Amino acid sequence: MAAEQGTQLSEAQIAVHWREENYYHPPAKFIGQANAADPAIFERFSEQRFPECFKEYADLLTWDAYWHTTLDTSNPPFWKWFVGGRLNASYNCVDRHLATSRNKAAFIWVPELETEETKAITYQELYRRVNEFAALLRDFCGVRVGDRVTFHLPMVPELPVSMLACARLGVVHSEVFGGFSGVACGERIADSGSHILVTMDGYYRNGELIDHKARADEAVAKARDLGAGVDKVLVWRRHPGQYASRSPMVPGRDFFVDDLLRDYRRTVVEPVSMPAEAPLFLMYTSGTTARPKGCQHSTGGYLAYVTGTSKYYQDIHPEDTYWCFADIGWITGHSYIVYGPLSLGTTSVMYEGVPAYPDPGRPWRIAERLGVTIFHTAPTTIRMLRKLGPDEPPKYDYHFKHMTTVGEPIEPDVWRWYHDVVGKGEAVIVDTWWQTENGGFLGSTLPALKPMKPGSCGPGVLGVYPVIYDENGAVVEAGSGRAGNICIRNPWPGIFQTIWGQPERFVQIYYEKYCRNKQSKDWRDWPYFAGDGAVQAADGYFRILGRVDDVINVAGHRLGTKELESASLTVEEIAEAAAVPVMDELRGRAVEMYVSVKPGVAPSRAIEEKVAKAIETEIGKIARPKNIWIVPDMPKTRSGKIMRRVIAAISNFTDVGDTTTLANPGVVDDIRHHVQAEKVGRGEVPRKLSPQEIEEIKAFGRAE
Ligand code: WT7
To answer: Residue 355, Cβ neighbours under 10 Å: how many?
Structure first.
């Protein structure tokens, strides 16, 4: 940090100006039926009632043993919720609904190909499948309470079946997003220490049957390089009985699940009664270093939190058809496709494919066909559907009562299209702000009780008290127009327990910055640092500006600059690499890589392509950069640190600022002329950026 004193911008210095948006009020019809329609709920969750207020969420679950301590703060910041309580997540999501809803659809699965039949999986059928797969894991694989099992599964019903089977056994699942590469999967296998990989032979993406099993071989090889042995690879088949991959099955290691399951028909596995504090799953995410962080989520606190927020913020009623159009490979899907909705016994829709396949009317056809009442997706999907099919929604006869946007800031203009055209002006919208680490929502309006404001998520959710601090820990007042670091003053049941295997990093990244007293056992001394910049308006609503660490949010996917850079450095010709964000009309942000080559190597398209391929191999196709620029030298400080804000400014056509403190100020103009001329040639000049977008670029790279 010291290296660039003077050019460093603290969040608190950023004055943010934007037009205040008008409120939108929830429709009377929505208010009339809402789960939370009485303002007394704010009283029940007031700070004076903390932490006991969360009993209301925990009481939505079925406990084998009730807890004696709601919140144990004896080892900060490793909070423990509902201590003494015991429960099983699979029982809560499946078994307990059988008595009343045995033949209700738990999932409706929509395959990508429209010629393939949509499938409804009832709670009874889910119960059978979860038990049989749990028996297979226990008896064939020998997994036991506390073991980790890694999945690399796409959006198929086998994914929630596998999750719930692990949960039934008290086994910790770790799903790696299906779009991640084999290498990325292998790293996560090694980090979590799992010996079993559950995958699928193939799945449909843009009408094409992708060979997915090939990635399992790469994953096992990568894990082996890292010293971790995978004993068994369980391969579900997209079409049981037919193998869709070219990759050979390795005898003694690879097994078709549909074959094995024959031995477990009708087997019933008793749900293992787990302590509330037992880990339920790991979900890896990106941060400032190249090593991904395995966020460890609890059983009791997590399940209570996603159930409570699904009820009040998603307004799920038993009769709703709820469609969260996200991937279960991300936390959104874990919490709001699987655990929250199933715990409430609703019908959760799963769609295998991409939004606009075979045309941008597809999501609305699905909504019409299934009678979807609640719709949940990300700004990137909304932007894409608006661009490709702005007039599609009115062609279909569906009616949403409720819609969600999640994962990135949404532009007010996109919000209005979502409200007016997708929602036909009939639906309430919640803009939910949260993170992989959080388990469930942190910021949102309570849909029947607070008006909506396009572009703002709203206040903290029930029982969550956010605050904005400046770099020195002083509170940035609501309505001041100043931005700062958004933090949460208190623990909540959905907060992750630790970073798997790295408890010191857990404390350091999330709590050290604003901890007032490391000796203190009072939660008030341990605010949670979220890593997002935000502004709070006079009405208490937060507007989230984006990450303050070096994470680039591409279409709602968190990519660490360090991960992108170390992937680029696997190419032998590359000497140095720097990743920066560039504003992108559809994806919010895209990645641009700047690389320099080793002495004696001539720059070429082939090297650019090698870098792109390396990123696809190490991380996945989602991380493929928009552009790769080979530069003669990186702009650097005198201490040799790459000035990412300078190249970020070049990529975004903003002011590079003061470069006089650089060791090599001369390269800046060379790079700018080259890159910007190329971009103009490709028609990639960005629209006029907003003041806060300009500030984001200026501040990029300050996390180091
Ligand atoms: C980051 C977390 C948790 C859902 C999926 C993303 C950004 C998330 C919003 C929102 C503005 C948002 C933040 C956050 N973000 N929701 N409603 N408005 N920004 O989870 O991959 O862990 O990413 O996404 O920057 O820190 P994630």
So the answer is: 17
Which residue puts its alpha carbon closest to atom 6 of ligand 1? 407
| CA–CA gap between residue 480 and residue 310 (Å, rounded) | 33
Residue with tokens 């919490």: 335
Of residues 10, 549, 648, 613, the one with CA closest to residue 285? 549
Distance 176 CA to ligand 1 centre (A): 18
Cα three-residue angle 167-168-173, rounded to 5 degrees: 25
User: From the CB of residue 289, how many other CB atoms can be counted at a distance below 10 Å?
Assistant: 15
Least trusted range by pLDDT, from 224-228, 296-300, 559-563:
559-563
pLDDT digits (tens, 9 = 90+) for 220-260: 999 999 999 999 999 999 999 999 999 999 999 999 999 99
Predicted confidence (pLDDT) per residue in 660-697, tens digit: 889 999 999 999 999 999 999 999 988 888 888 888 88
Copy the structure tokens of residue 570. Answer: 């696997």
Rounded distance between C-alpha atoms, residue 289 and residue 269, angstroms: 41
Instruction: Tell how far the Cα of 556 is from the centroid of ligand 1, in angstroms.
Output: 7
Tens digits of residue pLDDT in 598-654: 999 999 999 999 999 999 999 999 999 999 999 999 999 888 889 999 999 999 999
Q: How many whole angstroms from 544 Cα to the centroid of ligand 1?
A: 9
Tell me the C-alpha distance between 158 and 163, whole Å: 9
The finding on whether 457 has its CB within 6 A of some atom of ligand 1 is: yes
Structure tokens at 46: 């007031």
Residue with tokens 């039949």: 117
In sequence order, the β-bridge partners of residue 554 are 557, 588
For the record, the structure tokens of 73 come out as 């703060």
Indicate which residue's Cα is closest to atom 21 of ligand 1.
Answer: 558
Q: Which residues contact 594 (CB under 8 A, 6 or more apart)?
A: 577, 578, 579, 580, 629, 631, 634, 647, 671
Residue among 438, 544, 589 whose CB has most ligand 1 atoms within 8 A, to mutate: 544
Are 481 and 63 a contacting pair, CB within 8 Å?
Answer: no
Q: For residue 455, how far is the Cα from the chain centroid?
A: 19
Q: Is the dihedral of CA 217, 219, 223, 229 positive or negative?
A: negative
What does the block give as tokens for 196?
């079993």
| SS3 call for 297 | strand
CB 534 within 8 A of CB 543: yes
Summary mean pLDDT of the chain: 94
Residue at token pair 């004076």 = 48
Taken as a whole, the chain contains a residue count of: 704
* Distances in whole angstroms, Cα of residue 3 to Cα of each of 562, 661, 663: 19, 10, 11
Ramachandran angles phi, psi of 593, nearest 5°? -105, 135
Q: What token pair was written down for 86? A: 């015991």
Quote the ligand 1 centre to 479 CA distance (angstroms): 23
Please identify, by atom number, the ligand 1 atom nearest to the C-alpha of residue 332.
4
Which residues are CB-neighbours of 1 under 8 A, at least 6 positions away?
8, 702, 704
Q: Which position has the token pair 């857990």? A: 506
